[in-house]
């Protein structure tokens, strides 16, 4: 059984920090080193100083995060809500010129164990990233950013509360981020409504859309604390839950972006030879310019398996000749997995053509920004960029329900849920 519950959030004291835009930031895994510096310079109290602290002469970065977090609580920079609440959350944003609104709420989600319904993951994780976040959670003893959960919302909880309750509520938090997304939070404290949220979600399947590393780290921290407590463990301690953002599968507000790959090889690639080998699996078309290349990518992605390639200022579209190829080359994976363009890229291109080890791809970067990668390829003769279309929400659910996982960095849900809006402590005050 899924269990969701209200909590007393730790939030910024706006009387002390002023404009929240100066102190919040995106999740840690989408922040570049340059962005980290920029957020750090915005304010001495920007959340980046906890989320991605820097080593100091007297402390490593993880201990430093813990010290800063506790000091801000002591100084009243961060304060804890007095009442149990669920925080309803709207994000108004623009994508491809279209205005959209995603609705959801932030609450605590009980971590899955042998007695509870599973929380379905759809992506594999990187051990280094988990180790990094595990070191951090042990020092701060808090969930700093919510995991991103998608569920069907069979009882239309989100829609009903936004229609009936939110219009009469005062906005609790409002901030416009650097991408001009408007983030608004409302504090729901009515015990009757809180109970309806809890009871209305018990039989839902919950899917992790973003934050796989954070969820696994939260489970690892729970297990660590359980070992420490031994027979004093009750199962209701704060660390048995993690901070989560919940939204439904409504396509009107849910936007999934592609995640492209920039690969830096050890030696310069012979492009002509690469294209010749690719023709074993793909119909290959060279495209004259970037605009048409991106247009055809998106258009073909609705009906075909397609991979885009950029190298030596040349654009190529690789269209899979026959899906039966995948039955042989990815025979150990189910049909839902084989249908993913990222799986086709990994097995046919990276493994079979480029002879790379999928478990250790080396110098590879991930981003939804195609233009950024094209510019980097132009500057580096050892680099090549691969472009993908976004994964559909139905594919994510089918893969997860089948007990399988996509390769890391297969999905990018947009916009991101900001870090620093609400924090959940994993120990009593």
Provide a quick synopsis of the model.
With 429 residues, this protein is α+β, with helices and mostly antiparallel strands. It has helices spanning 14-17, 33-42, 48-51, 61-75, 127-140, 157-164, 191-199, 212-229, 271-278, 290-300, 324-329, 335-338, 341-353, 370-379, 393-401; strands at residues 4-5, 10-12, 78-80, 86-95, 98-110, 119-120, 142-143, 147-151, 171-176, 182-188, 206-210, 241-248, 255-257, 260-264, 282-287, 306-311, 314-320, 364-367, 383-387, 412-414, 424-425.
Question: Please, could you describe this protein's structure?
Answer:
With 429 residues, this protein is an alpha+beta fold. The chain has two domains: 4-255 and 414-425, no CATH class; 259-389, no CATH class. It is built from 15 helices and 21 strands. The strands form five sheets. Strands 1, 4, 5, 6, 8, 9, 10, 11 and 12 form a nine-stranded mixed β-sheet that branches. It has a six-stranded antiparallel β-sheet with strand order 15-17-16-19-14-18, with helices on both faces.
Please name the defining characteristics of this protein.
429 residues, 2 domains, nine-stranded mixed β-sheet
The percentage of residues in β strands lies in 15-25%
Oligomer: single chain
Tally of domains: 2
Count of individual beta strands: 21
Radius of gyration: 23 Å
Can you count the helices?
15
Q: Give a short account of the largest sheet.
A: 9 strands, mixed
* Helicity range: 25-40%
Shape: globular
Lay out the secondary structure.
Layout: E1 4-5, E2 10-12, H1 14-17, H2 33-42, H3 48-51, H4 61-75, E3 78-80, E4 86-95, E5 98-110, E6 119-120, H5 127-140, E7 142-143, E8 147-151, H6 157-164, E9 171-176, E10 182-188, H7 191-199, E11 206-210, H8 212-229, E12 241-248, E13 255-257, E14 260-264, H9 271-278, E15 282-287, H10 290-300, E16 306-311, E17 314-320, H11 324-329, H12 335-338, H13 341-353, E18 364-367, H14 370-379, E19 383-387, H15 393-401, E20 412-414, E21 424-425
Parallel strand pairs: 6-11, 8-12
Antiparallel strand pairs: 1-5, 2-3, 4-5, 4-10, 5-12, 7-21, 8-11, 9-10, 13-20, 14-18, 14-19, 15-17, 16-17, 16-19
Helix pairs in contact: 4-5, 5-8
């Amino acid at each position: 059984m899924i269990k969701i519950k209200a909590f007393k959030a730790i939030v910024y004291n706006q009387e002390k920090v002023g404009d929240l835009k100066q102190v919040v930031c995106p999740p840690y895994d989408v922040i570049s080193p340059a962005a980290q510096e920029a957020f750090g310079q915005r304010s001495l109290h920007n959340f980046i100083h906890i989320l991605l602290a820097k080593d100091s002469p007297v402390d490593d970065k993880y201990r430093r995060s813990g010290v800063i977090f506790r000091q801000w609580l002591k100084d009243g920079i961060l304060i804890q809500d007095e009442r149990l609440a669920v925080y309803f959350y709207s994000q108004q944003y623009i994508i491809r010129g279209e205005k959209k609104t995603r609705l959801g709420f932030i609450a605590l989600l009980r971590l899955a164990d042998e007695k509870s319904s599973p929380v379905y993951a759809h992506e594999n994780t990187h051990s280094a990233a988990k180790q990094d976040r595990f070191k951090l959670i042990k020092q701060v003893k808090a969930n700093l950013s919510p995991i991103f959960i998608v569920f069907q919302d069979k009882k239309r909880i989100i829609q009903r509360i936004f229609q009936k309750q939110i219009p009469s509520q005062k906005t609790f938090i409002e901030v416009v981020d650097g991408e001009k997304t408007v983030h608004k939070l409302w504090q729901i404290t009515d015990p009757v409504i809180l109970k309806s949220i809890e009871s209305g979600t018990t039989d839902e399947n919950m899917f992790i859309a973003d934050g796989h590393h954070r969820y696994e780290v939260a489970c690892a921290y729970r297990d660590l604390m359980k070992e420490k407590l031994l027979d004093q463990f009750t199962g209701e301690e704060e660390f048995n839950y993690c901070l989560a953002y919940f939204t439904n599968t409504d396509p009107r507000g849910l936007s999934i972006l592609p995640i492209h790959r920039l690969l830096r090889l050890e030696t310069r690639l012979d492009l002509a030879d690469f294209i010749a080998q690719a023709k074993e699996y793909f119909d290959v078309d060279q495209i004259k310019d970037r605009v048409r290349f991106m247009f055809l990518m998106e258009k073909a992605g609705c009906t075909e398996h397609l991979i885009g390639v950029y190298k030596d200022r040349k654009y190529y579209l690789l269209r899979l000749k026959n899906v039966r190829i995948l039955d042989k080359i990815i025979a150990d994976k189910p049909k839902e997995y084989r249908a993913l363009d990222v799986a086709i890229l990994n097995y046919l291109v990276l493994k079979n053509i480029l002879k790379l080890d999928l478990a250790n791809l080396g110098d590879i970067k991930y981003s939804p920004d195609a233009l950024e990668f094209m510019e980097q390829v132009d500057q580096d003769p050892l680099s090549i960029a691969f472009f993908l279309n976004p994964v559909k929400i139905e594919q994510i659910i089918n893969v997860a329900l089948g007990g399988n996982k996509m390769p890391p960095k297969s999905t990018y849900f947009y916009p991101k849920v900001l870090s620093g809006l609400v924090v959940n402590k994993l120990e009593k005050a």
